[in-house]
Automatic annotation (TrEMBL):
Pfam families associated with the record: ECH_1
Name of the protein in question: Enoyl-CoA hydratase
Alphabetized InterPro entries for the sequence: ClpP/crotonase-like_dom_sf, Enoyl-CoA_hyd/isom_CS, Enoyl-CoA_hydra/iso, Enoyl-CoA_hydra_C
Entry-linked Gene3D superfamilies: 2-enoyl-CoA Hydratase, Chain A, domain 1, Lyase 2-enoyl-coa Hydratase, Chain A, domain 2
Length: 257
């Protein structure tokens, strides 16, 4: 099915998902968000895909939610739109998603990048939560994820001034995994994705789930969850293959079973 704002290419078990609404710096309107999350959910269910990369254009990953779409909305209209649902669905994606960010990642765009599991940033990337300048606040996890990732004081400086930070500052604060030349950003994210796609898929998904839980639960609960997931992996064919391949001194062939 062809989508209006989202274009996907699949290569060697990795899906590259491009947001293409460049005329408005990839502003995330409802239609676009529904397409994006629908596409990620579809790829999540596709056995031929093991890892995904989400990217935008050279000038913007995404400059936030579509301000035009929100400008005249009433509380009732905002509530009826139920935008949270689509962001909640994004959290249900089990396979790793890497954001390749060039240019602006502002407001909902920064929240989208943070909703991914890792961020590779081009050296020209700019991250920010400028909602305060519009008289609102982040609505898709900005106050929560940013605080967890970079700490409350630094997060508050960004959230309360609305001032964007550079890719290098984002790296120093732990918001992104690495900073690379802008023109190689997508390729670097794809290389990371290919490396992950070679690992045992069920282990990869369980590691993602456990690491995400680490941010939500106390240490004891997290350790128990990790232990149970660890035991469960002993039921997979990939676990037998991985250990056998090591002992045979050859590369494992993981089938996701
Ligand atoms: N929405 C709509 N259009 C946008 C836009 C946006 N966020 N950002 C840029 N555009 C449009 C501009 O209006 C302009 O359109 P034309 O005038 O050409 O028709 C075109 O993109 C190019 O932008 P500029 O001419 O402004 O380009 P510059 O290089 O001069 O400036 C900029 C780039 C990124 C600094 C500037 O465009 C800018 O400040 N944009 C707005 C950034 C922003 O405030 N973002 C936060 C939006 S609020 C929720 C979930 C999420 C959210 C809310 C609720 N729920 C789950 C309920 C999120 C809220 C937000 O993100």
């Amino acid at each position: 099915m062809s989508l209006r704002y989202i274009h996907t290419e699949i290569n060697e078990s990795v899906a590259l998902v491009r947001i293409e609404r460049h005329e408005v710096l990839n502003a995330l309107n409802l239609h676009l968000m529904n397409e994006l999350v629908g596409e990620l959910a579809r790829l999540d269910a596709d056995d031929s895909v093991r890892c995904m990369v989400v990217t935008g254009g050279p000038k913007a990953f995404a400059a936030g939610a579509d301000i035009l779409e929100m400008a005249d909305a009433t509380v009732v209209e905002m509530k009826q739109r139920n935008q949270f649902q689509v962001w909640d669905r994004l959290r249900q994606v089990r396979k790793p998603v890497i954001a390749a960010v060039n240019g602006f990642a502002l407001g909902g765009g920064c929240e989208l990048a943070m909703a991914c599991d890792m961020i590779v940033a081009g050296e020209d990337a700019k991250f920010g939560q400028p909602e305060v300048k519009l008289g609102v606040m982040p609505g898709a996890g900005g106050t929560q994820r940013l605080t967890r990732l970079i700490g409350k004081n630094r997060a508050l400086e960004m959230l309360l001034t609305g001032r964007p930070i550079s890719a290098d500052d984002a790296l120093n604060m732990g918001l992104v995994n690495r900073v690379v030349p802008a023109e190689t950003c997508v390729q670097e994210a794809l290389s990371l994705a290919y490396e992950i796609a070679k690992q045992a898929p069920i282990a990869v998904q369980m590691i993602k789930e456990a690491a995400n839980k680490a941010l939500d639960v106390d240490l004891q609960t997290g350790m128990e969850l990790e232990r149970n997931a660890f035991y469960l992996l002993f039921a997979t064919e990939d676990r037998s293959e991985g250990m056998k391949a090591f002992l045979d001194k050859r590369k494992p062939v993981f089938r996701g079973r």
